[in-house]
Design a protein that fits this description.
alpha+beta, globular
Length: about 130
């Protein structure tokens, strides 16, 4: 599962008041919940877009830190999607994911990529435990 940070000075709960409704608007109605780091995340077992096979999304709460958005998308094999004639759905899937993340975090795809690069670089600077 991937965690997404908020834009500086913003909080997830201010941008997304009703997480379940927000997820439903983008991916379909959640059918279950799943525990992750002490928080309940929503699970969409049959997403509206045929490219996706399963989606887990929600907010994870950290004491003393900002909440982070969690998004884990399982996709069906491209060959299967194409064979069923859902080529347009593949383009829509990319847009859905990016729009969902940008609306929730206030950060576009470039800002999210740059942040992940910095996180990887920061991890590389930490000494390995010996």
């Amino acid at each position: 599962m991937r965690e997404y940070k908020m834009r500086r000075g913003e909080h997830l709960e201010d941008r997304v008041e009703d997480m379940e409704a927000f997820i439903t608007d983008y991916f379909g109605a959640p059918t279950d919940t799943e525990e992750y780091k002490g928080s309940d995340l929503y699970v969409v077992e049959e997403p509206d877009n045929p490219v996706f096979s399963r989606i887990v999304a929600g907010a994870v709460e950290y004491s003393g830190k900002k909440n982070k958005l969690i998004l884990d998308i399982e996709e069906r094999p491209a060959e299967e999607v194409i064979a069923e004639g859902h080529i347009d759905a593949a383009e829509e899937a990319v847009s859905l994911k990016n729009d969902f993340l940008e609306e929730a975090t206030g950060r576009d795809a470039k800002a999210r990529r740059d942040s992940m690069k910095r996180d990887v670089e920061d991890d590389a600077d930490k000494p390995d435990s010996v």
